[in-house]
Design goal:
The structure is a single chain. This protein is of the alpha+beta class and 118 residues long. Helices cover 22% and strands 29% of the residues. It is globular, with a radius of gyration of 14 Å.
């Protein structure tokens, strides 16, 4: 793997901000700048985990892992100062067949953070 690429690590934690919206909930994965919406917290978290997995696997399969980890804009990161952890960390399995990756047992953790005003 070239030095410029980012390799996932089991100790890597992806921060996901969850915000209540008029239509339900929004989840924003800050280290990968992925956003999705759904009607419930459980569904939005399931959807964001699916998107994280898909983006990582596509980047891995195209031999361009650096493209998977493009951080969100600074204003999104500033919301972390007001975020409260909710629930436990979710483990995301990044495995799956790929001709570009020898270590298929990699995983990372997703941390749900509530940024809805109290």
């Amino acid at each position: 793997m070239p030095d410029s690429e980012v390799a996932p690590d089991k100790d890597m934690i992806l921060q996901v901000l969850v915000t209540k919206t008029a239509a339900g909930y929004e989840a924003h994965c800050l280290p990968m700048d992925i956003v999705t919406e759904a009607g419930s917290v459980e569904q939005v978290m399931n959807d964001i985990v699916d998107l994280i997995t898909a983006q990582y696997r596509y980047a891995r399969d195209t031999n361009n892992l650096a493209s998977a980890f493009v951080p969100a804009p600074a204003e999104a990161w500033q919301q972390l100062a007001h975020a409260r952890p909710t629930g436990s960390l979710r483990t995301v399995d990044l495995g799956g067949h790929s001709e570009h990756c020898d270590n298929l047992g990699q995983s990372l953790a997703v941390q749900e953070l509530d940024v809805t005003p109290a």
